[in-house]
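Appendix B. Raw example, untouched.
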Amino acid sequence: RFLNYQYLVYNKIMDIRKDKEKGKKLPFILPVLFYHGERKWNFETDISELIEIPIKEAKKYIPSFNFFKIMINEKTYEELSKYESVLAANFACNTVKSKEEFMNAVLNVSNLIKSTIPKEQRLVLSEDIAKYLSFISKGRLSTRTIIDIINVYEGDKMTLAQLFEQEEQKGYQK
């Protein structure tokens, strides 16, 4: 997937540039994997390791592609929570066990959103965060409760909860 994503980005850049910047080098893209699965990571990180090489001389024609791994599942809640980051706080939610711990972790995400994200960007970001937290909730909290906790638009024209209700009316599935 990473290789495909990187190709798509580079292809888009080349389409935009066309002849205007012919010969200009493409920007560096650092592919990063945030792994938070329950099982230990046991997959190759270089695509060349997955390709059968018929003869030794053919190896130089096999693409080598690596990515940077961050093993979230090997970190504790405390380790992830020490970072004042919405991303780290989201990953920390995946490490807690009980419903109460999960609720407090989601509240921490909400507080970080309010203190670090500009108001005009909160609604879109909060929607994506609510989807992620609902996915990893594993039944500990309902989507509605998660939305209520991270509802960062109190008093504004449209709350996150209202947005989800509007989407549900259009057939959106949580």
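End of appendix B.
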